């Protein structure tokens, strides 16, 4: 194995021309550099330098080895730069999955930021999955990160070996038609007043459905379901059409259709957003960087959604 430190001295001698110049650049003494080059010759069994007058110059073998040294040292410099970038969390390829309303809002914002930032070497491969499937993909190793959610009235347990950090919380509101005349209590709707109303709900295989069912159950009734869809935009359009009422998280409302109003609830329900990863990867610098970016983007989107709701 060639000693890289000695190889660096040989390459510097070819570049600088004198032992004294090599010693100055490397903060060594000239005799020390000469001794190291002599040791390299013994280790390789080849003459690498020779006297030419008062100067020391490279032999043919020394010149060939020095030329290789330049390339090796350049590669080492690149490796050191990339290692530093990895330590800082500014480079790396990661796979991320997120539920749809997160994917089209703050996750998309982070992707846009990464693509337009010339200093970022972070690269994401994306997919959309509901939290149950996302956590299964995470534990199976199919993804590195999963943006999931949990409702205040539906506890979510993480699988063994997974950890999660909160990205923010948002209120769930009741969407009703503008013609709805049920009285409000302090500006908020009482779900019990919607016993017997037609309900538009998510599909029964996800926690969004459980959230609606439990919120109504706490109000003393089971919802009379007339439509099921996981697309909250469709839910709002059906409310606008007079089909029924729906409970919608704030982040899912891209645009409020004409004829629909959103009411806070007298018994609040919140949806908390989380970024989950596997325990061994929790301290990965790139994952920590992505976590900060996602938290900032989520906070901005959630603040904007609250402002829109207040304006309505």
Question: Overview of this structure, please?
Answer:
There is one protein chain. The chain is of the alpha/beta class and 312 residues long. It has nine helices and twelve strands. The chain has helices at 4-16, 19-26, 30-44, 60-88, 100-116, 131-139, 207-218, 232-240, 285-311, and strands at 49-52, 55-58, 91-98, 121-128, 145-151, 162-177, 188-189, 198-201, 224-228, 246-249, 260-265, 270-278. Strand 1 and strand 2 (55-58) form a beta hairpin. The mean pLDDT is 87.
CATH topology of the largest domain: D-Maltodextrin-Binding Protein, domain 2
Write down how many β-strands occur, each being a DSSP E stretch of 2 or more residues. 12
Low-pLDDT stretches are none
User: What gyration radius follows from the Cα positions, in whole Å?
Assistant: 32 Å
Q: State the fourth-level CATH superfamily of the largest domain.
A: Periplasmic binding protein-like II
Large-scale geometry: rod-shaped
Proportion of residues in extended strands? 15-25%
Tally the structural domains.
3
Distance between the termini: 72 Å
How many H/I helical runs? 9
Structural class: alpha/beta
Helix content: 40-55%
The average pLDDT score comes to 87
Task: Write the element-wise H/E pattern from the N-terminal end onward.
Answer: HHHEEHEHEHEEEEHEHEEEH
* Name of the top-level CATH class of the largest domain: Alpha Beta
Q: Can you summarize the main beta sheet? A: 8 strands, mixed
CATH-scheme architecture of the largest domain:
3-Layer(aba) Sandwich
Domain HTH lysR-type: 2-59
Protein name: DNA-binding transcriptional LysR family regulator
GO molecular function, one term: DNA-binding transcription factor activity
Pfam family, one: HTH_1
